[in-house]
Specification:
This protein is mainly beta. Helices cover 10% and strands 37% of the residues. The protein has one domain. The chain has a four-stranded antiparallel β-sheet with strand order 2-3-1-4, with helices on one face.
């Protein structure tokens, strides 16, 4: 039955960095490099920074030993606001089971 599979829980690190002025055309390049460096998930979120300036929140989900991942792109691709947020979170996954359509 779908939904009955047990969760596999693992601790991962969530790292958030604010980006000030990166060219949006480079988001894909940065994402590819972070995945190649060991990130499990990467996403970009548009945010309003102080003084109503547009910015981007980069969130990286990675194994705890990969804490230096944000340095893969900075400062090469844009201005990164000093400071980092995040912490250890629990990621729950279910095993993939192939199903055939009837």
């Amino acid at each position: 039955m779908l939904g009955d599979a047990p969760y596999n829980n693992e601790e991962v690190e969530r790292l958030d960095r604010l980006i000030d002025d990166m060219n949006p055309q480079l988001f894909g390049v940065v994402m590819d490099r972070l995945f190649a460096a060991g990130a499990l998930d990467v996403y970009f979120t548009p945010v309003q920074m102080k003084k109503n300036r547009p910015g981007t929140l980069l969130t990286i989900v990675a194994p705890p030993e990969a804490r230096a991942l944000p340095e893969v792109f900075a400062p090469r691709y844009g201005s990164v606001v000093p400071g980092e947020r995040g912490g250890i979170v629990v990621k729950g996954t279910t095993p993939r089971v192939p199903l055939e359509a009837e």
